[in-house]
Amino acid sequence: MEIVSTFAEARERAAGHVGLVPTMGYLHEGHLSLATEARKRSDLVVMSLFVNPLQFGEASDLARYPRDLCRDAALAEAAGVDVLFAPALDEMYPTEPVVRVDVGSLADVMEGPHRPGHFAGVAIAVTKLFAGVRPDSAFFGRKDAQQLAIVRRLAADLSLPLDVVGCSTIRDAEGVALSSRNIFLDEEEHRAATAVGRGLMAAADAVEDRERSGGALEALVASAIASEPMLRLEYVALASAHDCSRLSRLDEEAFLATAVHVGATRLIDNVHIDLRDGAFVADRGVRLDGPTILEAN
Ligand code: AMP
Prior knowledge:
Elements lengths: L1 E3 L2 H6 L5 E6 L5 H13 L2 E6 L9 H6 L4 H10 L4 E3 L3 H4 L18 H4 L3 H16 L3 E5 L3 H13 L5 E5 L2 E2 L15 H22 L5 H13 L4 E10 L13 E9 L2 E12 L2 E5 L2 E2 L10
Parallel strand pairs: 1-4, 2-3, 2-5, 3-4, 5-6, 7-12
Antiparallel strand pairs: 8-9, 9-10, 10-11
The site of adenosine monophosphate has 17 residues, from helix 2 and strand 5.
């Protein structure tokens, strides 16, 4: 595996079908599952590693975001990444961008109001990565369901010549969706966070038992979260996978998403609900059976 820091170097390596896995680093099995999927579908796998300041609201969140290039390089190589593209701030933003990517109403709901400017920051970084690396496919996690919907729409609306591939959420053995921010949870907070996964799994079961009411599905998640006093619910919403609009009835591909606060940490999670041959099937994610690489640190 090569580590490069400029778009030109990343592009020089291009050969055959190029798969791009954008990340902010501090890798865990969620990121690595994207690399594994990219490896299966691509001749060359490029993983980008860039903590994008434009998508952070609070400076303190940006400052405390974990970073460790040596650790990430070893994990990326083991997962089959060919090129680790770790640009410095100047390479991504040589000048303050004047032209921005407006994702419209997609950013007005769920995560949007709680994180002003977040999706605009994601959109510009992702657009630059697509333009600079020129991948044939790009791999994103369903863990960040609204982000995935926005990136799909961005690629479609701007006619960007690449496939956006969504990959299942990886969960730890207790059902908590992996996130680089999980390292901030103490044992009690982590135990409390398991209620989120339980609520989402109950809703997934209900979908497969033919529950179609958005309110009823949201209530299942909200009540599991309310049963855990350490959690503070921010929102729970059944949303269209196509345009992120709130659905009062499940009648198209969707995701049931929630955000909670536990201590000083904010967590998001969801179940994606696919429509396959006229039937709704919940993607509960993949549960690991042992300790995660985040716990091993
Ligand atoms: P991040 O480094 O948090 O920006 O995440 C980089 C990519 O990894 C995004 O496409 C995320 O959706 C994806 N990702 C993060 N956590 C998980 C997870 N637990 N399972 C699957 N994909 C994930």
